[in-house]
Amino acid sequence: MSFVGRVALVTGAGKGIGEAIARALAAEKIKVGVNALHKETAAAVAKEITDTGGEAIAIPGNVAEQNTVNTMVAKLAQAFGPVDILVNNAAAMAEMIPFEKTTTKEQEDELVTLIGAFNCTRSVLPSMIDRRNGRIINISSVSGRYG
Questions:
Q1: What SS3 string covers the chain?
Q2: Domain 7-141 annotated CATH 3.40.50.720
Q3: Residue 73's pLDDT is what?
């Protein structure tokens, strides 16, 4: 199956696994929306991708905010077309603490990861359903086993 020319949104693509996924997709001739919380970070990764012959745009924003996500998805669709591939990778990184020792604030911070995936999925899913085409990939970690 060829994904050449498809459009992907990769959240948390400013570094680490997300950045590697964005680069790998671009290497396969997929047009990539590079999401990171900070504009400079998203722009740097998008520039590196375009400098090496890929197609990418920076889509900075907080995925925990639905209106922000909707704007991100609209910007990507305007540039490249509707999202075909969503990679939910954004995560709020926190120290691993046993659940019973966490504060309410720490629990809320952890929810950002889950809420972000929900928001992004909610934003791209209607178009995927209408087109009867799309892939949603959720990245997780072993943290869930130990929390």
A1: CCCCCCEEEECCCCCHHHHHHHHHHHHCCCEEEECCCCHHHHHHHHHHHHHCCCCEEECCCCCCCHHHHHHHHHHHHHHHCCCCEEEECCCCCCCCCCHHHCCHHHHHHHHHHHHHHHHHHHHHHHHHHHHCCCEEEECCCCHHHHC
A2: yes
A3: 99
